[in-house]
Amino acid sequence: MKSPLVVEPLFYIGPVPITQPVVATWVIMAVMVLFSILLSRHLKQRPGRTQAVMELITGALDHQIEDVVQSDPAPYRVLIGTIFLFVLIANWSGMLPGVEPPTAHLETDAALALLVFAATLYHGVRSNGLVGYLKTFAEPTWIMIPLNLVEQITRTFSLIIRLFGNVMSGVFVIGIMLSLAGLLVPIPLMALDLLTGAVQAYIFAILGCVFIGAAVSEGRDTASQERSPS
Amino acid sequence: MTVEEISILSAAIAVSFGALGPGLGEGRAVAAALDAIARQPESAGTISRTLFVGLAMIETMAIYCLVVALLVLFANPFVK
């Protein structure tokens, strides 16, 4: 049986091997960019049907982000929304025949999780300043510094493994069912895969939001505590 | 027993025991969340979002076991 941890290269551009997940990622990116350009080209004050649907999705995203971060969702909308839509489309792309979801391979998930990690650092430093952000690692006492550092790494790692494990196990189970039973039998499992894919995309986005929100608000709490001597 | 046989057995044990704990934990979490929603239906949105994130955290333990099992089966360092 094919190992889920190894990816075979499809073709080579010069010395660089290009694998199937990379091609799938490029196609998804192209589709997303194309759709957003097409849909946002004729924005009107009185929205038509497609624009109303898009505004509904954006509004729902904004609402979720605002609930988690407890502040204006505008700085996080682009990153979190794009990650959510990309992971959702990537998870569901496995339903197309011949396509394996790119999120079923470790490398794509690692890239996404590193994006979230970088965004956590960026927003933490931007809202608290470098010193203020570094100070949040010594909360509540300086003894917690190593634990806080380890937490940063383990939660990024668990973000990778969670998405990879869920999507990959779905693909794997469908493959095993196909080799055992064949026609029409894996359909309930594929329906379950749709549900898992949506839930995992939601969880990935919300967890990224929680991490960024924690990095932003931890500093805010300590700053307000310093300002008001109790 | 050869290393391969031990690997297969240990992969099965890892997944079975790794699924046991998170299964119990998720059951308790869902029961508690349902209890809370029944008491306060107006805060169902917040509770279910927190529940989803918490379930994902718990489920990660089972997924870790699955990944360990896959490592043992497909990327075993002791099998040449």
From TrEMBL, chain A:
<keyword id="KW-0066">ATP synthesis</keyword>
<keyword id="KW-0472">Membrane</keyword>
<dbReference type="Pfam" id="PF00119">
    <property type="entry name" value="ATP-synt_A"/>
</dbReference>
<keyword id="KW-0406">Ion transport</keyword>
<comment type="function">
    <text>Key component of the proton channel; it plays a direct role in the translocation of protons across the membrane.</text>
</comment>
<dbReference type="InterPro" id="IPR000568">
    <property type="entry name" value="ATP_synth_F0_asu"/>
</dbReference>
<keyword id="KW-0812">Transmembrane</keyword>
<dbReference type="InterPro" id="IPR035908">
    <property type="entry name" value="F0_ATP_A_sf"/>
</dbReference>
<feature type="transmembrane region" description="Helical">
    <location>
        <begin position="20"/>
        <end position="39"/>
    </location>
</feature>
<feature type="transmembrane region" description="Helical">
    <location>
        <begin position="199"/>
        <end position="217"/>
    </location>
</feature>
<keyword id="KW-1003">Cell membrane</keyword>
<feature type="transmembrane region" description="Helical">
    <location>
        <begin position="108"/>
        <end position="125"/>
    </location>
</feature>
<comment type="similarity">
    <text>Belongs to the ATPase A chain family.</text>
</comment>
<dbReference type="InterPro" id="IPR045082">
    <property type="entry name" value="ATP_syn_F0_a_bact/chloroplast"/>
</dbReference>
<feature type="transmembrane region" description="Helical">
    <location>
        <begin position="163"/>
        <end position="187"/>
    </location>
</feature>
<feature type="transmembrane region" description="Helical">
    <location>
        <begin position="78"/>
        <end position="96"/>
    </location>
</feature>
<keyword id="KW-0375">Hydrogen ion transport</keyword>
<protein>
    <recommendedName>
        <fullName>ATP synthase subunit a</fullName>
    </recommendedName>
</protein>
<keyword id="KW-1133">Transmembrane helix</keyword>
<keyword id="KW-0138">CF(0)</keyword>
<keyword id="KW-0813">Transport</keyword>
Automatic annotation (TrEMBL), chain B:
<comment type="similarity">
    <text>Belongs to the ATPase C chain family.</text>
</comment>
<dbReference type="InterPro" id="IPR020537">
    <property type="entry name" value="ATP_synth_F0_csu_DDCD_BS"/>
</dbReference>
<dbReference type="Pfam" id="PF00137">
    <property type="entry name" value="ATP-synt_C"/>
</dbReference>
<feature type="transmembrane region" description="Helical">
    <location>
        <begin position="51"/>
        <end position="75"/>
    </location>
</feature>
<keyword id="KW-0406">Ion transport</keyword>
<keyword id="KW-0472">Membrane</keyword>
<keyword id="KW-0813">Transport</keyword>
<dbReference type="InterPro" id="IPR005953">
    <property type="entry name" value="ATP_synth_csu_bac/chlpt"/>
</dbReference>
<dbReference type="GO" id="GO:0008289">
    <property type="term" value="F:lipid binding"/>
</dbReference>
<dbReference type="GO" id="GO:0045259">
    <property type="term" value="C:proton-transporting ATP synthase complex"/>
</dbReference>
<dbReference type="InterPro" id="IPR035921">
    <property type="entry name" value="F/V-ATP_Csub_sf"/>
</dbReference>
<comment type="function">
    <text>Key component of the F(0) channel; it plays a direct role in translocation across the membrane. A homomeric c-ring of between 10-14 subunits forms the central stalk rotor element with the F(1) delta and epsilon subunits.</text>
</comment>
<keyword id="KW-0378">Hydrolase</keyword>
<keyword id="KW-0812">Transmembrane</keyword>
<keyword id="KW-0375">Hydrogen ion transport</keyword>
<dbReference type="GO" id="GO:0033177">
    <property type="term" value="C:proton-transporting two-sector ATPase complex, proton-transporting domain"/>
</dbReference>
<keyword id="KW-0138">CF(0)</keyword>
<keyword id="KW-1133">Transmembrane helix</keyword>
<feature type="site" description="Reversibly protonated during proton transport">
    <location>
        <position position="59"/>
    </location>
</feature>
<comment type="function">
    <text>F(1)F(0) ATP synthase produces ATP from ADP in the presence of a proton or sodium gradient. F-type ATPases consist of two structural domains, F(1) containing the extramembraneous catalytic core and F(0) containing the membrane proton channel, linked together by a central stalk and a peripheral stalk. During catalysis, ATP synthesis in the catalytic domain of F(1) is coupled via a rotary mechanism of the central stalk subunits to proton translocation.</text>
</comment>
<dbReference type="GO" id="GO:0046933">
    <property type="term" value="F:proton-transporting ATP synthase activity, rotational mechanism"/>
</dbReference>
<dbReference type="InterPro" id="IPR002379">
    <property type="entry name" value="ATPase_proteolipid_c-like_dom"/>
</dbReference>
